Amino acid sequence: MLFIPFAAHGQTAVLPVYSCVKPGVKAITSGLSSSNYLQGVIPSCRVTVYLTGTTNIATTSPQSPFTANIDGSIPPIYAATGQGYDVVLSGGIPPNTYTIPITLTDLSVGIGSGGFPITLGLTSIAGSSTTTSVSGLTVDGVTPTVMGYVDPSSSIQTQLNGKQATLGFTPYNATNPAGYISFAITSVNALTGPALTLACGTGLSCISSGSTITVSLATAFTINSFTGGSTVELGYPVVNPTFAATYSVTPASASITNTDSISSPTTLTTPFTSGTITGTFVHASVTTTTFTLSATQGSTLTATQTINWQPAIFGGVGTAGATFSVTAAGTTAVLSNGNVLPRLQLGAEMVGQTFGPFSPSGQVIYLLLTGGSHTFIDAGTGFPFAFNAPLTVSFLNANGVTVTMYLYQTTNSLYGTYTPKVAS
What angle do CA 17, 47, 43 make, to 5 degrees? Predict the structure, then answer.
C-alpha cells in the first residue's frame, strides 16, 4: 500500500519563527568593534503572537506571550492553519536586547504532521534502477483514463493539444512577452469595425469562453510587506511617521488611515511604496495606534502596522537603602542614593519573565516595575528569591509623564550572578 498525507481541516502547524536575533550588530573583542556586521543573538527575548492586523493575542502552543530560551532559540510555535499572524520580538537580557521591538507581519504556518492517509491499490509496478512507472491504477475511484489528463505525454493530452488551433488565439508565452493574444471582434463599447484586435500585453492574461473574453492580471495582486511601526515610551512624540510597502504588482491606488484620525487618510502616489503621515502622534497612557494600508489593483487589500506607547521598566545593582524618590535620566532611572538602573524594556513585566543576569558584589538588586505585588524565584535554581516589600514610586519619565511604579530591593546583599524570575 502507498500512503500519501493530506492536511486535515482545522489542524495546527508551526510558525516560521525560530530564534531571537537582531541583524547588523558588531562583535566587541578587547574593546574593539569588528568591521563586519553579524546576527546578534537576543537571549530570553519576549515573543508575542497576534492575529494579523489586530491587537488580539493568538491562541498558540506554547501560549503567547512567552519568553524564549536563554540561547535565543524559540521553541516551535503551534498555531491554527488558514490564519495570518504577526509576531513581535522584544525585550531580552541586557546588553543584548531589542531597543525597539521587531514585528514580523502576516506569517502563515506550514503544513504540520496532522492529516490522514489515502490508500492507493497498486495493480502493477514496473521499473528499473533509475525509473519507475505506475500503470492501471485507481485512486479513490479515479480511473486510469481520468489520470491520463494530467500526463503531458498521454494520448488523451495529445488529442487535447490538437484542439489548440480551433481556439482562435495563441497562449501567452513567458519567454516571449512581446507576443500577445489576438481576438477578432467587431465592437468594444463605442468602437466598431469589421475586425478589432484586443491585445494582451505583458503581465495580463486573456481567456476566451464562448462570446466572453476575460482579461486579468497574470500575477495575483498581493501586499508583500508593510513596515514602519514601533514601540515607544509613554509621552514620546512620534512626528511625521513614515511607512514603506512592497507589492507583487504595482497597485492602481493606495492610501493609509490611522485610528488617531491624524492626516487620515493619507493618499500615496505612484508607485505607492512609501508614505509620510503628517502630524504628531503622542499618548500619555498605554495606547496602540493602528495604521492601515489599503491598496487597490482590481481588488482592495489591506495591511496594518502599529505604534505602541508603553511604560519603561528598569533594573540593576547598587548599594542598599534607596527610597521612593526616583528620577529619569534619558533611558535610565536614578535612585535616591545615586544608583543608576538601565532600562530593561518598554512594556510592563509579565509573570514568567526573567531579568538579568545581574552580578552584584556585596550589593543588592533593584527592579523598578509597574506591578506592586510580585513574588520572585531564581530562574537558575527555582528557589524563592527574597525581595523587600516594594516602595511605591511616582516616576516622572523623560517625556514628562508620571507613572506609578514599584521599587523592589533584594532583602540581602549578594555576591555572584543571579537571574530573578517573576513567579506571581
Answer: 90
Q: CATH top-level class for 223-309?
A: mainly beta
Single out the residue of 76, 68, 64, 67 nearest to residue 12, CA to CA. 76
> Cell for 299?
481588488
Q: Which residues contact 114 (CB under 8 A, 6 or more apart)?
A: 7, 8, 11, 12, 13
Nearest 5°: the CA angle 303, 304, 305 is 140
- For β-strands 230-233 and 299-310, DSSP reports them as parallel
What does the alpha-carbon distance between residue 70 and residue 379 come to, in Å, rounded to a whole number?
Answer: 11
% of the chain residues with pLDDT over 90:
63
Closest C-alpha to 97, from 284, 306, 312, 242: 312
Residue 185 parent element (H or E): strand 184-188
C-alpha to C-alpha distance for 211 and 290, rounded to whole angstroms: 46
Confidence of residue 145 (pLDDT cuts 50, 70, 90): low
- Taking phi over 0 as left and psi of -120 to 50 as alpha, with beta for the rest, 352 belongs to left
CB-count exposure of residue 120 (10 Å: 0-12, 13-18, 19+): middle
User: In terms of Cα–Cα distance, which of 57, 101, 66, 125 is closest to 345?
Assistant: 101
* Other beta carbons within 10 Å of 275: 23
- 72 contact partners, CB below 8 Å, separation of at least 6: 19, 20, 21, 41, 42, 43, 44, 45
- Kindly report whether the global pTM for this prediction surpasses the value 0.70: no
Q: Which three cell numbers stand for residue 74?
A: 524559540
268 neighbors 277 (Cβ within 8 angstroms)? no
Say whether 149 sits in a helix, a strand or coil: helix
Phi, psi for residue 146 in degrees, rounded to 5? -65, -40
- 182: nearest Cα among 165, 163, 199, 166: 199
Residue 226 to residue 301: CA distance in whole angstroms: 12
Question: Contact at 8 Å (CB) between 65 and 46?
Answer: yes
The pLDDT score that the predictor gives to residue 130 is: 41
- Residues contacting 409, CB < 8 A, separation 6+: 320, 322, 364, 365, 366, 387, 388
Q: What span, in angstroms and rounded, lies between the C-alpha atoms of 316 and 96?
A: 15
The Cα-based distances of 345 to 175, 298, 356 in angstroms read: 53, 43, 12
Mark out the alpha helices in 46-181 (DSSP H runs).
Answer: 144-147, 155-162
